[in-house]
């Protein structure tokens, strides 16, 4: 997994070679993003397996997302065995300029002494 920030977006990439894109499941619950996927064996019945080093079965990875991310608008693309997720920084978490107003001048009150 790689994760980096690019401007107002966070990008997370997962290597999932040999995974059928339809087996990938993304869920978000209480700011926890879960990525689940399955890789099936590529050899069939009657094949004599000589070496089987590639992991098979279900994979699951969880990421804890900060409050500063817009979890309602996650982009997801799968290309050449890489799942790329894009998350925007939430509007309330973006830096913003605060205008400073000019304070009113205080008038001097001259009182009489009696």
Structure description:
With 114 residues, the protein is mainly β. It has a domain at 2-40 and 54-93: Immunoglobulin-like (Sandwich), CATH 2.60.40.790. It is built from no helices and seven strands. The chain has a four-stranded antiparallel sheet, with no helix packed on it. Strands 3-4-5 form a three-stranded antiparallel sheet, with no helix packed on it. A hairpin with a 2-residue loop joins strand 3 and strand 4. The chain is rod-shaped, with a radius of gyration of 27 Å. The chain starts with a strand and ends in a 25-residue tail after the last strand. The relative contact order is 0.24.
Ordered list of secondary-structure elements with their pairings:
Blueprint: E1 2-6, E2 9-15, E3 25-29, E4 32-39, E5 57-64, E6 69-79, E7 82-89
Antiparallel strand pairs: 1-2, 2-7, 3-4, 4-5, 6-7
Please name the defining characteristics of this protein.
mainly beta, rod-shaped, 4-stranded antiparallel beta sheet, 114 residues, 7 strands
């Amino acid at each position: 997994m790689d994760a980096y920030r690019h401007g107002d977006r966070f990008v997370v990439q997962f290597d999932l070679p040999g995974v059928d894109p339809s087996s990938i499941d993304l869920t978000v619950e209480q700011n926890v993003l879960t990525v689940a996927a399955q890789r099936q064996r590529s050899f069939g019945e009657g094949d004599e397996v000589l070496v089987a080093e590639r992991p098979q079965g279900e994979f699951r990875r969880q990421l804890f997302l900060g409050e500063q991310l817009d979890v309602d608008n996650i982009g997801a693309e799968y290309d050449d065995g890489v799942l790329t997720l894009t998350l925007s920084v939430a509007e309330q978490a973006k830096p913003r300029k605060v205008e400073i107003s000019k304070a009113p001048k205080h008038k001097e009150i001259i009182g009489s002494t009696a």
